[in-house]
Specification:
Blueprint lengths: L1 E3 L7 E4 L9 E5 L2 E6 L10 E3 L8 E4 L2 E6 L8 E2 L4 E3 L3 H4 L1
Parallel strand pairs: 1-3
Antiparallel strand pairs: 1-2, 2-5, 3-4, 5-8, 6-7, 7-9
Length: about 100
Amino acid sequence: MKALLMDQKDNVAVVLQKLETGKAVDIILGRDVVDSVTPTMEISFGHKIATRDIKAADPVMKYGEVIGRATQSIPRGAHVHVHNVISIRGTAAQK
């Protein structure tokens, strides 16, 4: 099982296949395995997994850029999606 890290600064990786709870996943940057993380829940293909603990209000990093802010603490291995992140790119987040 694998998840793709887009940039070294990122704290989330993109899941390349459906992940099951408790089965370790390799985190890949380029062609190299740079880490391993164990999902704390089932995560669907194309969604994000936290590669390290993210505190509430901390930036969520993907592509080396801030894509949102955590609305709650997100532990390493958790599913990162709209239930625990608010986008900083949408108009509602800019108001």
